Amino acid sequence: MTQKVTLVRLAAVVLGFSALVAHAQDPLASWNDGPAKQAIVEFVKTTTTQGSPQFVPPEARIATFDQDGTLWVEHPMYTQVTYCFERVPTLVKEKPELKNKEPFKTVLSGNREAIAKLSTNQLVEILEATLTGMSVDEFRAEAKKWLSEAKDARWKRAYTELTYQPMQEVLRYLRDKGFKTYIVTGGGQDFVRVFAEQTYGIPPEQVVGTVSGTKYGYDKNGKPFLTKEPKLLLNDNNAGKPEGIHLMIGRRPVAAFGNSTGDRQMLEYTKAGDGARLAMLVLHDDAEREYAYGPAQGLPNTKVGTFTQALYDEAKKNGWIVISMKNDWKKIFAFEP
Amino acid sequence: MTQKVTLVRLAAVVLGFSALVAHAQDPLASWNDGPAKQAIVEFVKTTTTQGSPQFVPPEARIATFDQDGTLWVEHPMYTQVTYCFERVPTLVKEKPELKNKEPFKTVLSGNREAIAKLSTNQLVEILEATLTGMSVDEFRAEAKKWLSEAKDARWKRAYTELTYQPMQEVLRYLRDKGFKTYIVTGGGQDFVRVFAEQTYGIPPEQVVGTVSGTKYGYDKNGKPFLTKEPKLLLNDNNAGKPEGIHLMIGRRPVAAFGNSTGDRQMLEYTKAGDGARLAMLVLHDDAEREYAYGPAQGLPNTKVGTFTQALYDEAKKNGWIVISMKNDWKKIFAFEP
After folding, report:
1. d(C-alpha A261, C-alpha B56), whole Å
2. pLDDT bucket at A4, cuts 50 / 70 / 90
3. Residue B335's pLDDT is what?
4. How far is the C-alpha of A118 from the C-alpha of A69, rounded, in Å?
5. Beta-carbon separation of A243 and B213 below 8 A
6. How close A8 comes to chain B (CA, Å)?
7. Average pLDDT over residues B250-276
């Protein structure tokens, strides 16, 4: 082999990485060209190009994402609530005294009409009974097992497959550009942590959620463990989202993504900072490929992931971008043909 | 220039970085050779060498550090408590009704004997009044200003200069080996966040501390802000440390560093995990270069950073390493000649 050939090969190795990057595919391939995709690309360009007047230093590149309805399907019911209901038979095996006690009796009956009529307090009672009282490790094992077996009724797929491909692309794109991506969810922090790393590439320490306290103690062998307690520390919805962001991150995000009225304050808080800011809301307007609900823009009303007309108007007024699932997304799920 | 020369130069560029690393200086240069330094080096080697039976994947490399007395000086009084006392005159200007009210009146008197006799409840009242009630941004600005001006009485230096050089080396060494370094402090989370990035290279989202809630609201122009509320969410001392670690990190650390009885549970929790674990305690046994207090090993007793003999015995029994400031540290502060 001549020196010239060796030199060319060595140079090829050195230059290979930048060549690969230059020829990379569109990082937002599942997005149709339009104002939503354009807003994301523009925001990333303006905040990450050295010398740009709106350049954001890498350590301040914080992007927060609601989960239910923003990163994965939340209809007909939040996945975690389904988990809690499906945990009730196991719970009753462990605590037989609950079998004939409401609201557990109704859940066990399987009577959908009666279940739909449970009060908020009764729902909270079910959530508390199924999400607390066990050790952190036991909870993780139980939730992991359920997630590996349970299937959504419509797509007959694991819930963790029902994530939105376009949002997965946004997560990756932002991380490739030096952003730290966080989940800021109304769902349980420990529940979402079980699958966030594998499903979204988001580690447990970057999951902010509704969270209850734990209690440190020792087992009979003197080994320490933490028990999940029914003591609410943070309801990570509405005003709780910026409060949770301050608690867990301590910086104001520069980009935030949501889909419901519960995300309003997070988006306001994000936009209130100086410099370039990106605030986006996913509108579920695709009954055919996913679901359609609002009630914004005349879409059917819902209690799960409510997107009011007032929120829509606030978005339009303040330069938040509303993402139309129907028009902005070429593809919704990775498993689509 | 011949092709051979070009080739050699190109190869030199490619290989340059690893050569630099190979010839790097001792990363723990301020440590004397001895069991403490050896334990750190061994732990890093065994957890970060690919193929080692105790290899820890990068995402699980979590190391937690107490702050007061572990990373910086805590005697004669925790710096944050000094901050709170020195804030009282400003507070009284804003709220003149406090001027003749206890415990503020005593603090304003400057009578050290009377101040030393304040009850715990009175201390809590002072902390609450000086650390809450303002916006998160106002608090940050106030604390930052104070830290830039205040001087420790003994060394006549800014408090942020009173960090231990050997521990700064451990922080950097662990980060260079892929660890995420966290502060887990009994001090206020927001207070420590003000200087942790600049002082330790630890970003706000990696500071876990004693933390109160915030409240989201709007100013008269409709701009959102967060107010610091006197509602304790977590007392990050003793059992609160593993609880805070679960809340904020969601993973068990593989290495933990402390110096007092308040760090016991964090070290127990860290050591209770599988595989290689490192648990270390700084013993303040150097009255000449810093301070000497215990009461472990016959050192003078103290209420600030108490290190009991029981903790010392637990450490020895469980393979935690006690760091002797006197014997293990060549140098304590970066500013030493």
Report:
1. 41
2. low
3. 97
4. 23
5. yes
6. 9
7. 97
CA distance to partner chain A, nearest, from residue B3 (Å): 7
Cα B244 to its chain centre, rounded Å, is: 14
Q: What is the mean pLDDT of chain A?
A: 94
Distance (Å, whole) CA B216 – CA A265: 8
Assess contact for B66 and B301: CB atoms under 8 A.
Answer: no
In whole angstroms, give the CA distance from residue A246 to residue A253: 10
* Residue B171 and residue B210 in contact, taking contact as beta carbons nearer than 8 Å: no
Where does the pLDDT of residue B9 fall: very low under 50, low under 70, confident under 90, or very high at 90 and above? Answer: low
- Reported as a single tens digit per residue, the pLDDT across B282-302 is 999 999 999 999 999 999 999
Q: Tokens 């709170």 belong to which residue? A: B84
Q: For residue B198, name the pLDDT band (cuts at 50, 70, 90).
A: very high
Q: B180–A215: do the CB atoms touch at under 8 Å?
A: no
* Cβ-defined contact of B265 to A224 (cutoff 8 Å): yes
Pairwise pLDDT comparison (A325 vs A16), residue with the higher score: A325
Rounded Cα gap, residues A252 and B203, in angstroms:
13
What backbone torsions phi and psi does residue B76 show, to the nearest 5 degrees?
A: -75, -15
| Residue A232 CB partners (closer than 8 Å, separation 6+) | A210, A211, A212
Contact (CB, 8 A) for B98 and B91? yes
Kindly report the length of chain B: 337
- As given in the structure block, the two tokens for residue A172 are 């990756």
- Could you tell me how many residues make up chain A? 337
In angstroms, what separates the C-alpha of B214 from chain A's closest C-alpha?
6
Q: How far apart are CA B112 and CA B108, in angstroms?
A: 10
Q: What average pLDDT does this structure show over A32-38?
A: 98
Token pair of B214 as six digits: 């915030």
B322 DSSP assignment: E
- Sort A204 into a burial class: Cβ within 10 Å, 0-12 / 13-18 / 19+: buried
A324: phi then psi, degrees, rounded to nearest 5 = -90, 115
CA distances from B321 to A120, B55, B279 (A): 51, 21, 6
B286 burial via Cβ count (<10 Å: 0-12, 13-18, 19+): middle
Q: What is the CA radius of gyration of chain B?
A: 23
| CA proximity to B71, closest of B176, B201, B179 | B201
Partners of B13 on chain A (C-beta within 8 Å) are 14
Instruction: For residue B202, list chain A residues with Cβ-Cβ distance below 8 A.
Output: none
| 8 Å CB contact between A224 and A207 | no
Q: How far is CA B24 from the centre of its chain?
A: 27
Distance CA A265, CA B63 (A): 33
The 3-class secondary structure across A209-266, one letter per residue, is EEEEEEEEEECCCCCEEEEEEEEEEECCCCCHHHHHHHHHCCCCCCEEEECCHHHHHH
Adjacency order of strands within the sheet including A278-283 = A224-234, A207-218, A180-188, A62-65, A255-258, A278-283, A321-324
What pTM does this model have? Answer: 0.92
Beta carbons of B140 and B134 less than 8 angstroms apart:
no
